[in-house]
Automatic annotation (TrEMBL):
Membrane topology listed for this record: Multi-pass membrane protein
Any one cellular-component term (Gene Ontology): plasma membrane
The organism of origin for this protein: Williamwhitmania taraxaci
Catalytic activity from the UniProt record: fluoride(in) = fluoride(out)
Taxonomic classification: Bacteria, Pseudomonadati, Bacteroidota, Bacteroidia, Bacteroidales
Annotated gene: fluC
Name of the featured protein: Fluoride-specific ion channel FluC
Record key words, sorted: Cell inner membrane, Cell membrane, Ion channel, Ion transport, Membrane, Metal-binding, Sodium, Transmembrane, Transmembrane helix, Transport
Function: Fluoride-specific ion channel. Important for reducing fluoride concentration in the cell, thus reducing its toxicity.
Family: Belongs to the fluoride channel Fluc/FEX (TC 1.A.43) family.
UniProt-listed InterPro entries: FluC (IPR003691)
One BP term from GO: cellular detoxification of fluoride
Binding, Na(+): 76, 79
Intracellular or extracellular location(s): Cell membrane
Annotated TM spans: 35-54, 66-85, 97-117
Cross-referenced HAMAP family: FluC (MF_00454)
Length: 125
């Protein structure tokens, strides 16, 4: 278990640093109020997690530890949006359309509400 935690932690560290550098570089290259840096990181993270899971499902090239390092660690540190979209793709493959709609809708709505409530809570104190 400790080995897996270290594998995930290392991947998360590299992914988080990569997210910061990539998003900052992209955002500084574009003069806009739109968060292009975060947007590109999220889409890139989704592509990468799909690629990594596809490789692990179709070949024996990737060990369990490497898959966990790349998906849970790196992609998880790079963007949690990639995990969210992969879970939705998995449910779509299984035909669970109701769960996809519920998970997506509730995640976006409740995520926005929780962020807003967390923000206004700081104004109370």
């Amino acid at each position: 278990m400790l080995k897996l935690i270290l594998i995930i932690g290392t991947g998360s560290f590299i992914g988080g640093v990569s997210r910061f550098i990539t998003a900052r570089y992209i955002q500084s290259a574009v003069l806009s109020g739109f968060p292009y840096g975060t947007f590109v990181v999220n889409i890139l993270g989704c592509f990468l997690i799909g690629l990594f899971f596809g490789i692990s499902e179709r070949t024996s090239f990737m060990s369990t530890e490497l898959r966990i390092f790349l998906t849970v660690g790196f992609c998880g540190g790079f963007t949690t949006f990639s995990s969210f979209t992969y879970e939705n793709v998995s449910m779509l493959k299984d035909g669970n359309f109701f769960y996809v709609a519920m998970y997506t809708g509730l995640s976006v709505f409740l995520g926005l509400m929780a962020t807003y409530l967390g923000n206004i809570t700081t104004k109370i104190f």
